[in-house]
Amino acid sequence: VMFLIGLVFLALGWSTKAACLQSTGTGTGDQRVANWENQRAYYELCYSDTVPLYGAELLSQGKFPYKSSWVETDGSGTPQTRYDGRPAVRYMEYPVLTGMYQYVSMALAKTYTALSKLAPLPVVAEVVMFFNVAAFGLALAWLATVWATAGLAGRRIWDAALVAASPLLIFQIFTNFDALATGLAMAGVLAWARRKPVLAGVLIGLGAAAKLYPLLFLGPMVVLALRTGRFRAVARTAATAAVTWLLVNLPILVLFPRGWSEFFRLNARRGDDMDSLYNVVKSFTGWHGFDPKLGFWEPPTVLNAVVAVSFVIGCAAIAYVAFTAPQRPRLAQLLFLVVAVFLLTNKVWSPQFSLWLVPLAALALPHRRVLLAWMTIDAVVWVPRMYYLYGNPNRSLPDQFFTTTVLLRDVAVVALCALVIRQIYRPGEDLVRWGGRVDDPSGGPFDRAPDAPPGWLPDWLRPAGLRRASAPHHEAESAVPAAVAP
């Protein structure tokens, strides 16, 4: 039933992109292009990165990602020059697994084009077929996310219906390729819950090869291992994840090191994105940001440092909550908090990144009305975003219409974090724990594990019931000589 619900919402997700899949031109599929004239992608709300990437990253020419490069140009087609005077050379900007997924999708699209020249098949623009092939795989990945979430929900299996019927799917499931990572990441958590740490490491490593965020899952696992003393399974998962990630990346790293590192270079030089909290502050205050006078592609070093420090502080706060809570937090609660803090403090929060939170939120805080309210707010951000980017002065929206919805989205996520923390400190209010009859369905080795923090952990990082009694203070007794009578 949940798969059927998911298919309905995935179909809605495809339908919102359909207007951008109309093509123009005549002849074979490789001679036709998507009709995005007059900024159609914005006023039709159908924008998807998949369509422009097909041409921009040379997939339309059949070139191999990470090997092929091009020079960035401006709107008039003039080649751009970096801040240091060098040409602005670009490569495929995605992690290896996502880049190869695009390459395979391109190969299948070109195969269909070749077959349509030989057999009486419908002629479909090659870029549209590329989108459809990629979307089919992304739909399967999201169904895998639903399946994994249902497996992690334990007796509350219908909490996964929130993942299948999330309003975010309507606009974001086919905007980019993030569903690949969510499917692998949640399957990794399911393997962990079933006490298969090596398989969990393989799946988390594959997820990180598609999008780095699944690596964040290892942090909460380490924190819970410190609280329970169960390190072996976490070490096996972390080591397997690292080896898996390396095995996927190593061939591209060795053969095309410059192309492989483009993902990291791009993220280092990006400024505060329009959906970030930093841009919201700039919008309402007139502030020019941490690095106001940068050249083209010059890295915003101050902003990067602020983002890193903010995230570390947020993780430290989560670790403090995990150590001091009266009852060990559930793994899903900590996973949600870490990913939410990453998004809130990061300089980039692309709309599809919110998909990362959906399965984690359903497991961490299974209050359907609360989660649907957040997902609806988050989904609605897409509308003013598109009309803000729309260049028609008579129909586009001003900056603050968009940033107001972003602020509401951020407030909603902060509220979810506050509710999760409240239930960590008040486990009796946690619906998953069922009045103490259930501990941690997704915890795997941590489920029902007693607290056994290491001896070196200070008292202020222990729950109240495990703090060591301070040694009694003994005053030194001084010997006083007896007075001698004269």
From TrEMBL:
A Gene Ontology cellular component where this protein is annotated is:
plasma membrane
> Would I find Membrane among this entry's keywords?
yes
InterPro entries attached to this UniProt entry: GT87, UCP010361
- The highest taxon in the source lineage is Bacteria
Chief location bin: membrane
- Give the Gene Ontology MF terms in alphabetical order: hexosyltransferase activity
Transmembrane feature ranges: 127-148, 160-193, 199-226, 238-256, 302-322, 334-350
| Coiled-coil portions | none
Alphabetically sorted, this entry's keywords are:
Cell membrane, Membrane, Signal, Transferase, Transmembrane, Transmembrane helix
Q: Membrane topology type, per the record? A: Multi-pass membrane protein
Q: Where is the signal peptide?
A: 1-18
Where does the protein end up?
A: Cell membrane
Family listed: Belongs to the glycosyltransferase 87 family.
Q: What is this protein called?
A: DUF2029 domain-containing protein
Species this protein is from: Mycobacterium paraffinicum
- Specify the taxonomic lineage: Bacteria, Bacillati, Actinomycetota, Actinomycetes, Mycobacteriales
